[in-house]
Structures are given as structure tokens and as C-alpha cells.
Write the C-alpha cells for this entry.
Amino acid sequence: MTPGSQRVPYGLVLTMLAGLLLMCATAGVTIGSVALPPGQVWQILLHQLHPMLVDPTWPPVRASIVLDARLPRVALAAVIGAGLACCGMVLQAVVRNPLADPMLLGVSSGASVGAVAVLVAGAGLGVFMLPLAAFLGALVALVAVYFLARTGGRMTTLRLILAGVAVAEVLSAVASLLIVTSDDPHKAQSAVRWMLGGLGGATWSTVWIPAVAVAVGIAVLLAVTRPLNLLYSGEEAAAALGLDVHRFRGAMFVVVALMVGAMVAVSGAIGFVGLIMPHIVRMLVGADHRRALPAAALLGASFLIVCDIAARTVAAPEELPVGVLTALVGGPYFLWLMRRKVSA
């Protein structure tokens, strides 16, 4: 029996992942310092959708908790998780390396430098300046890692990891230098907290920019699944079939940098989501990006919502940065994956 015949039907996988996301989102809204019954949460949402659907039998403060505090945070976690998972899957296809990830390749660090520079610069900067600076930083970092890792027309796993780590360390040092030399201790403190990666303080006004960037980015990626499949199968084969590999790779770098920049500008650097999710998705639905990208978006969204729930509850009433939890999960997985690849 072939591996493909053993897989669960694709439609069933998507249905299960969508159901998982719905359950995780419901849990994300119900769990907190004030526990809310899931049924009441859905009644509040239905009443918000149309007042005639459900009669309000709950205190107004509970509606405010659901609609103004927890739902924006869950929505932001879903957007960031979906975007990071899809970015990781595309990077692994574009550089043809299963260890590629926005954090490991220095993309998140580059975005962090741009965002920290804006944060410590102070007021007077428009709402789009932070995402724009993060995008430029992410793009510069990604291009630098690519050219450092590629020599003689080839790119090895070792060189990619070394280049990514080196660029990430340099950029992290630059970000730290910007924070240390800041004249305003309050801005420096907020920048440090932001760099750890967190979703606290999410509001609807902060959700829409990454939501639009991720939605547009995923739509673009779904439109180029055939070139992605060709490149994932081999650079020489893709070029032989008429794909302009260098131009396509550059375009994908821009798309990924835009998505990561918009996400990092709001959430800070959250690592390893883009490393873990693509591998799980390929085991579920295969490597065809037409199938894998939607599944990665659903699974990544669910994963980050669960991580954020843990970040809010593990050390309650204190809140852990969600980036710390994803690193605790992703770090050992990365070491295992690297060891398996080296031994293979």
C-alpha cells in the first residue's frame, strides 16, 4: 500500500482542522480570569451578529469581555498562527530546506530591528510606519541570509542554518543596542516586552493590518501553488519546465517579508510556528501546496491560540510571552529534526 493511499481524505482533514480551530477559538474566549460558559459566549456572538437571534440574558460586562477583550486576542492569534505556518511552508519550498523558518532564517529578527527602531523613535509616526519598517527589515534579512548561504549555485543545510543564525544574532544585537541607547526607559521597556513575542493588549484596531496582509499573502500563495510545487521538487526540474527560478524566488521573498513584517509589527517575534506546522501538514495531506497551504493555515491558527491560552493561564495572574512557549515547544523539535536530517 502506498503512503498516499493511507492518508485520510483531504476533505475530511480540512473539516477536522476547521472543527479544531472552532473549538480552540471557543476555548480561547471562554478561558480567563473570568470563566465564561461556551454556550453563553456563542449567544453573545449571535446577538452581536443580529439582535433578533438571541435575547440578552447576560450582564453587559460579559459581552464587553467577549467582544472587546478576548475575541480580538483570539482573532489575532489565529491570524498570526496561520500566517507564520504558511510563511514557513513557502520558505521551505523556496529554499528547498525542511529547516527553513521565519525565525531561524533571521526574517523575524530583521522585522524586529525595523519595528524596534520605530518604537524607540517615539511618537509622530503614522500607523503604517511600524509595519513598513518591519517589512523592510524582514526583506533585508531574508535576502542577506539567502546570498550568504548560497555559494557556487548550491545551498546546503549547514550553510543555511549558519547564515540564518549569524544574521539573526547580528540583528538581535542591533535591536538590543537600539533599546539600550534609548533615552526613554518606558519605550525601552515596552520594546523589550514586545521582542519576546506576545498578544496582550490586542484590539480590533491592531488586528486588521496583519489580517489584511495575511489574507492577501495567502491568496497570492494559493495562486502560485504550481510554481511552488515545481520548485519544491527540484530547482533544475523547475527551470527545465520554464520557471524563472530566481525571479519567482525573489517574488516569494517579498510576499513572505510583507506578511512577516505585518505580523511582527503587532505580535513581536514568535518563533518555530513556521517550522513545526508544515511538517505536520505534509504528513496529513502531502506536499502539494494546493492542499497543504489551507491545512497549514488552519493548523497554525489553532496551535497559536492554544499556546496563547497556556501563556495566559500557566502563571496566572501573570502572563507569559507566547513567544517563550512556542520556543519551548519548537526548540526541541528543531534539534530532533536537524539530527534526523543529518543522520539521513
Observations:
- The chain has 15 helices and two strands.
- Strands lie at 150-151, 154-155.
- The chain has one domain: 36-64+81-91+100-198+205-334.
- The first strand starts at residue 150 and ends at 151.
